[in-house]
TrEMBL record, chain A:
Signal peptide annotation: none
Organism: Streptomyces regalis
Region feature (Disordered): 265-284
Protein known as: Hydrolase TatD
A GO molecular-function descriptor: metal ion binding
Automatic annotation (TrEMBL), chain B:
Organism superkingdom: Bacteria
Xref: NCBIfam families: EboA_domain
InterPro entries: EboA_dom
Source organism: Streptomyces regalis
Name assigned to this protein: Sugar phosphate isomerase
Length: 284, 231
């Protein structure tokens, strides 16, 4: 079984996770730029983070046989801090880079005017850079937030097939699929969505334009939820082809729209370094 | 004091060689991109990072890879001078991945920057990426790096096993103090029963008075061994 996790924050995960993910069948991941659990207070810490998403993390993933791509953006939460806003002026430099396959995570957190501005501006950047957009839907007031997000997406003029709305549930999936956008689901141990509920959604809405991710990060989460969802699909009677469609071909099709998703299985190399630094311990 | 003066040779002009290897699509993209940068320097922010996937990254000649040369074309198209040019080049380096940073460092001798880009060379020399260190120690560093820093840079190359023939300006900038430092390094290595890299010997021998009796003896033994191996 081959698995592509279209949304996972590997910067927060350990090398044990990489090993377990590879053993479970994960061969490619996309890491969206997000917040760190505590707020950043200056643009410079974003740049170091973006550099890590494009440098150290793909190197680390490759040592475990996993291909790593990323999405770049000012996230919704931090769009509310005026100290962080200058990041928007430098995004051009990062959105042009080879391993960047979408603009994201963008979207709403508290639905403030500042978030409106950042969302609209970054959807324009996606259009200008000919990139897909990964749009997060809010945890609070989700249905209203999703409706409002779909309105902003429509007003922006971006093609709906270039947009995924993520963290959906039973109440928001219908309107997103009807809009022509992709529907993303984050499978979490307790909140958001479980693998069994996910299987029910797939039964009802089908497997087309659906992305399933673990969204694993620094919080309670599980980087193997993609594999567990695949197993739940098989147990519920879905065939191997449907599993491959949801867990591999769909994310490849979605991010492939960037023209930058160059899938090539990495060969782990004990001697490889990034900028002269390695993940080895002891020794040179 | 450095033995210095002769200005180290500038790198080859990347244009002609590039034209012969780029296909029509890549050549058109590069020409249009250079024109955009010449008209609006801010355009370089989007164009500079995209070069590798637009033009390729094979080796072009002994000095340039294709992406480095194509990026040099964009940098030399910037319609800026002095501090304004240095600021833009510095920001491209700051936000660049290692390939972009190599391109910036390799292009420095083609830009009229005076000493303004020395902070980029110094930052590189503090790091551990040998490909970046090598790119930083080209004609620009040979012409602008102060003596003490140039010597430390050469010694760092010896430690991280960058062959010294890849360091520009050694023939004119090697001085007695550098020879002394390398002789001391050789002495330390021999005392530890370890090998001495051969490429430091010409610098040391050019200043015979830095070689103490003990080292002389060891070096002679070593040389005798080498001659035996070669015969």
């Amino acid at each position: 079984m081959r698995i592509f996790d279209p949304h996972i924050h590997m910067t927060s995960r350990t090398t044990d996770d990489y090993e377990a993910m590879y053993a479970a069948g994960v061969r490619a991941v996309v890491e969206p730029a997000f917040w760190l659990g505590q707020p950043r207070t200056s643009p410079e810490s974003f740049y170091d983070y973006f550099d890590g998403l494009l440098g150290w993390e793909p190197y680390r993933a490759a040592q475990f046989g996993i291909q790593h791509f990323c999405t770049i953006a000012l996230n919704p939460k931090e769009a509310n801090d005026p100290r962080c806003l200058p990041v928007l002026d430098e995004l051009d430099r990062y959105l042009a880079k080879d391993r960047v396959v979408a603009v994201g995570e963008i979207g709403y957190d508290s639905m403030t005017p500042e978030e409106d501005e950042a969302l609209a501006r970054q959807l324009q950047l996606a259009i200008e850079h000919e990139l897909p957009a990964l749009v997060h839907t809010p945890h609070r007031d989700k249905a209203a937030g999703t409706r409002r997000t779909l309105d902003v997406v429509r007003e922006s003029g971006i093609a709906p097939e270039l947009v995924v709305l993520d963290h959906l549930n039973e109440l928001t999936v219908g309107m997103v699929l009807d809009s022509g956008c992709w529907a993303g689901f984050s499978i979490y141990p307790k909140t958001k969505m479980s693998e069994d509920r996910m299987v029910e959604i797939l039964k009802e809405h089908g497997t087309e334009r659906v992305l399933v991710n673990s969204a694993a990060d620094w919080g309670r989460s599980d980087p193997l939820k993609t594999r567990k969802t695949a197993d739940a699909m098989l147990a519920a009677g879905f065939g191997d082809d449907a599993v491959d469609e949801v867990l591999w071909r769909n994310p490849v099709a979605f991010y492939g729209q960037s023209g930058r998703l160059e899938l090539e299985e990495p060969k782990p190399d004990e001697e490889a370094t990034f900028r002269g630094n390695s993940i080895r311990r002891g020794g040179a | 004091m450095a033995v210095t003066t002769a200005s180290p040779s500038a790198p080859p002009d990347p244009h002609p060689a590039l034209i012969s290897v780029l296909d029509d699509t890549a050549r058109t993209w590069l020409d249009e991109s250079a024109a955009k940068v010449a008209a609006d320097p801010a355009a370089v922010r989007r164009l500079f990072p995209a070069v590798r996937r637009r033009c390729g990254h094979a080796r072009l000649d002994a000095y340039w890879t294709v992406d480095e040369a194509a990026r040099a074309v964009l940098l030399t198209a910037l319609p800026l001078r002095g501090q304004a040019l240095a600021d833009d080049v510095t920001r491209l380096h700051r936000h660049g991945d290692p390939a972009e940073q190599r391109a910036v460092l390799r292009t420095l001798p083609l830009l009229d920057l005076g000493d303004l880009a020395l902070p980029l060379v110094r930052e590189t020399l503090r790091g551990n990426d040998t490909t970046l260190i090598e790119a930083a120690l080209g004609p620009y560093a040979a012409a602008h790096l102060p003596d003490a820093e140039y010597r430390q840079a050469v010694l760092k190359c010896v430690f991280c096993e960058i062959p010294l023939d890849r360091v520009t300006g050694l023939d004119t900038r090697a001085d007695r103090e550098l020879a002394r430092m390398l002789a001391d390094f050789a002495h330390e290595r021999l005392a530890a029963g370890r090998d001495v890299p051969q490429d430091i010997l010409p610098v040391v021998r050019a200043f015979p008075d830095v070689i103490g009796a003990e080292l002389k003896h060891a070096l002679t033994d070593r040389l005798t061994d080498i001659l035996k191996e070669e015969s």
